[in-house]
Amino acid sequence: MNWQLVPQFAVSGLLAGGPIALMALGLVLIFKSSYIFNFAQGQLLLLGTLFTWWLAVEQGLPLWLAIALALAASALLGLVIERLALRPMTGQPLLAIILMTLALGQFLQGTALLLFGGAQRNFPQIFSAANPYKIVTPFIYNDRNIVIILKQNLVWSFVVAMLGVILIGAFFRFTRTGLAMRGASEDHELAQSIGLRINRIFGISWAMAGMVATVGGVLLATSSGLDLSLSVLVLAAFPAVLLGGLESIPGVIVGGLIIGLSSGLVSASKVQIIRNSAEIVPYIVLMIVLLIRPEGIFGQRRIERV
Asked: How many CB atoms lie within 10 A of CB 122?
């Protein structure tokens, strides 16, 4: 281990866990309201980010306006998906609905390729790339204090992602709509019997998931660029969701930070083969945690009659 670089990679990894937590939140939103694991979340993220880029770069709109319009378009896309693709699947086996989300993801990926092409693009910078933050730590290495250098876009992406997770967590806890969405996830038939409009709740959850995906994609694109492989980055959110607990919003924060930290620490290794395994480390961490606590850190234990 390169101990001089451990604090740098650890803090950078924790900050990178912010956008991962936000991406994981999109998955939790769907699961929390409809009990469906959405495998098309990465493609929603890709389309929302590409549309933001098209408005800002190709159409010359101010970036803030491009993001606002892309959020509205993502919410509309989520509503359309729920109405045309998922609602007709009501009452079908869970496996059939999961396969529908997989097929939907491939359809959206192909749509993105047809509309925007597969070229690499530079996304407009939201946060300044110059003047990084410098933190002088009390840790000494070779008679010098270890200095941590953090890019502004990494820090502010983390702040925006955490604010998004906290706001949506508050929405679920303190608003009538959020409480209705939580109730619907427990028992759809019981929720309907007390007057909750299940179809409306499902539509809201998909609209919110589309908006969250767009915000997460924009944050990722500012640092890693924009191409069709952006949708693959959501794979890092799957371990974060399962690690924190499928229904837990605080869990996505903890899961995202753990995934980011573990990947960052592995990147500080001096051994090339270990350093190159940063992409699979989240799944190794996930396997270890699930062996100890299968429901995840904040997941609920359920007893079901088989």
From this structure: 11
How many whole angstroms separate alpha carbon 44 and alpha carbon 32? 18
Question: Distance between CA atoms of 134 and 151, rounded to whole angstroms?
Answer: 9
Q: What are phi and psi of 36, to 5 degrees?
A: -120, 135
What letter represents residue 106's amino acid?
Answer: Q
Strand, coil or helix: 122: coil
pTM: 0.86
Give CA–CA dist 294/292, Å, rounded: 6
Count of beta carbons in the 10 Å neighbourhood of residue 139: 14
Q: Give residue-wise pLDDT tens across range 260-280.
A: 888 888 877 766 666 666 677
CATH, domain range 6-292: 1.10.3470
Cβ atoms of 212 and 167 within 8 Å: the answer is: no
**Spans of all domains in the chain:** 6-292
> Shortest CA distance to 34 belongs to which of 168, 200, 194?
200
What six digits make up the tokens of 242?
């399962």
